[in-house]
Write a structure and sequence with these properties.
Blueprint lengths: L6 H6 L3 H10 L15 H15 L3 H18 L5 H15 L3 H8 L4 H9 L6 H4 L6
InterPro entries: ARM-like, UCS_central_dom
Keywords: Cytoplasm, Repeat
GO molecular function, one term: Hsp90 protein binding
């Protein structure tokens, strides 16, 4: 689809393009604020994230990619808004289905595991299945 070193690939894997893909990964179809999606949207976004991560050959670009993902995830945590936390954990889950290396790095971020455990204890049925990312 994209050639090696393509401008489109570079633009997609940094900044606003990457954040839009992360937003798609954080969608939960059972919630009313969910973006319009097909049944394949989440897995397609996971595969795209993995492809972008694999195509970043130099360490500074890969480090920037990881930093954007980390800031996106931790920026969503809000002790007063469980729905934002749920979207953050869903995003990590989506990344794990594509890029296992990146997903594991994100699981190691401060607060991620704690938030997953808090969602497991939630009384809401929507929170519970999304709290534990399991690669398919």
């Amino acid at each position: 689809m994209f050639g090696s070193g393509s401008l489109s690939l570079s633009a997609l894997s940094s900044g606003p393009g990457l954040k839009k893909i992360l937003k798609v990964l954080g969608q939960i179809p059972d919630l009313p604020d969910c973006l319009p999606m097909t049944e394949n949207t989440l897995i397609t976004a996971s595969i795209l994230m993995n492809k972008l991560y694999d195509d970043l050959r130099c360490d500074p670009k890969r480090d920037n990619y990881i930093k954007i993902c980390e800031e996106y995830i931790t920026g969503m945590f809000d002790p007063n808004n469980m729905q934002k936390d749920l979207h953050a954990i869903q995003t990590v889950s989506g990344i794990l289905q594509g890029s296992f290396d990146l997903g594991n790095k994100l699981l190691g971020l401060q607060g991620v595991m704690e938030m997953m455990l808090a969602l497991c204890g939630s009384e809401s049925e929507i929170d519970q299945p999304s709290s534990m990312p399991l690669p398919s």
